[in-house]
Automatic annotation (TrEMBL), chain A:
Protein name according to UniProt: DUF4466 family protein
Keyword Signal: yes
Pfam families: DUF4466
Domain DUF4466: 25-327
CDD domains assigned: HmuY_like
Keyword rRNA processing appears in the UniProt entry: no
Span of the signal peptide: 1-23
InterPro entries the UniProt entry points to: DUF4466
Keywords, in A-Z order: Signal
Lineage: Bacteria, Pseudomonadati, Bacteroidota, Sphingobacteriia, Sphingobacteriales
Automatic annotation (TrEMBL), chain B:
Signal peptide: 1-17
Protein name per Swiss-Prot or TrEMBL: DUF1735 domain-containing protein
Keywords: Signal
Organism superkingdom: Bacteria
PROSITE patterns in alphabetical order: PROKAR_LIPOPROTEIN
Length: 329, 132
């Protein structure tokens, strides 16, 4: 009898639990903290490269009856390069989809590692954007940031971000190779040169851009090393002295977002450049297409690079290219 | 008691029968079937950028056991990835595990197709020509 009573009791408890679980909890609007609050998001994606920008959005707010915002300060562990600033405006998107800024004070002032905006208006909440230009001295190191907001009632709040690793590679964007004009590419300099420069500095030339339309075969926009077989240099004679055997591996789906600046979430990083295998790689890449690319290793093995083809133009015989380059030795 | 013993014995027989392998497998864990068909149905050749380097569809002669492929001018012949489509249950020997060097055009590469029952073997030669 005792056992039966226990079973009934357990069943009733279970039933009660089931009912309890089904009960709807009424939503209650959360009560805002009466303290100064802050939050941070990192807006920029991908590897942090010297010369590039790391972007943050820093928000702070306080109840209007408690006080107003008086300043926002960002301190970087390594002083940013020229061009580092904290935007003194917050933005709203209007009906046309355009960001419209509202200034909260004067433009930011950067002193050493610290960048500050002092509020002059009557603002209790604002999100400011911080743009940190990565300096040369940060290469291969890590950077941390401290974001601080102050309010008129004397409160101070901070948000730490980092460490953020700065890569060793370099990046060059939108180099325009033009057949017959500037078509000698130097990986070391990350620049295109004309024939006069190439003749005077043959050691610097790693690749030659050619646009040709031979009959029967497709050549179009091609990158060839100075040592390429003459079969891959139609109607072109390589100037004497150019003899770098640059290794190349074609790629097609490596649409690096920082190089391409289009929708794909692909990033070439230091480790990709360092680990790329160039065994048996050829010294020519024929018929390069827009959004394609080529992995490159210089003849002396000093640099590994990834060259992305942004656009090609058959009429003007041009190729717009961008590259990431890592010093290997 | 005797009946229980007989019942247990029958049950044991059932269990043993259930564990018996009806489907033989090869060293790669692939089923060995009764099919004796043995041929290549399609052939693809990809470059280092994993894009096709063919100028047109490969010509497959299942009687002569040859595959003729014309590749684009400027193809890097040392770093190619061949892909075979085979008749059902057949396997390829040797397996393709990475890039293949086709640069010596005078020596066609060879692969053997092994039928589903693993009893028929046909060796195909792959001839490359470069569009000029």
């Amino acid at each position: 009898m005792k056992q039966i009573n226990f079973k009934i009791l357990m069943s009733l408890m279970l039933l009660a639990l089931c009912f309890g679980a089904c009960k709807d909890k009424e939503y209650a609007i959360p009560t805002a903290s009466d303290k100064l609050q802050n939050d941070l998001i990192k807006r920029s994606l991908g590897p942090n490269i010297v010369g590039g920008t790391i972007e943050f959005a820093y928000a702070a707010a306080i109840l209007p009856e408690k006080g107003k915002l008086t300043s926002m300060t960002v301190e970087a562990s390594i002083a940013g390069a020229t061009g580092t600033y904290l935007d003194h405006r917050f933005y709203n998107t209007n009906n046309s989809g355009t960001d419209v800024g509202t200034a909260v004070g004067d433009p930011s002032v950067t002193t050493g590692k610290t960048t500050q905006v002092t509020y002059t208006g009557d603002f209790s909440a604002a999100t400011l954007r911080y743009f940190y230009k990565i300096p040369e001295e940060a290469r291969g190191k890590t950077i941390s940031f401290t974001f601080t907001a102050k309010s008129s009632n004397g409160e101070t709040i901070s948000y730490q971000s980092g460490p953020h690793e700065i890569r060793n590679m370099d990046m060059a964007l939108d180099l325009v190779a033009k057949d017959g004009t500037d078509f000698y590419l130097s990986i070391a300099d990350m620049k295109l040169y004309n024939a006069t420069f190439a003749a005077a500095n043959p050691d610097k030339i790693d690749l030659v851009y050619l646009y040709r339309t031979p009959t029967n075969v497709t050549y179009l926009h091609s990158l060839v090393a100075p040592t390429a077989d003459p079969a891959y240099l139609p109607t072109f004679t390589m100037p004497t002295g150019l003899n770098n055997k640059t290794k190349m591996v074609k790629a097609f789906t490596v649409r690096d977002q920082q190089l391409a600046r289009i929708q794909y979430g692909v990033f070439v990083d230091d480790v990709d450049l360092r680990s790329k295998d160039f065994t048996d790689a050829p010294d020519f890449a024929i018929n390069m297409k827009a959004e394609g690319g080529v992995w490159v290793q210089t003849a002396d093995g000093k640099y590994n690079a990834y060259i992305y083809v942004n656009t090609v133009n058959n009429t003007t015989k041009e190729m717009r290219l961008s590259m990431k380059r890592l010093t290997i030795k | 008691m005797k009946k229980i013993f007989i019942f247990q014995l029958i049950l044991l027989l059932f269990v043993i029968a259930a564990c018996k392998k009806d489907y033989p497998m090869d060293d790669d864990g692939l089923l060995i079937t009764n099919r004796s068909d043995c041929y290549v149905s399609a052939f693809e050749l990809l470059g280092a950028d994993f894009q096709t380097v063919r100028t047109k569809a490969a010509t497959i002669d299942t009687t002569a056991q040859t595959i003729n492929v014309e590749v684009l001018y400027g193809t890097d012949l040392k770093n190619l990835y061949p892909q075979f489509s085979l008749v059902i249950d057949a396997v390829l020997d040797p397996k393709i595990v990475g890039k293949v060097d086709f640069s010596d055009l005078s020596k066609p590469k060879e692969w053997t197709v092994v039928s589903g029952n693993r009893k028929v073997r046909k060796t195909y030669k792959v001839y490359l020509t470069v569009k000029q």
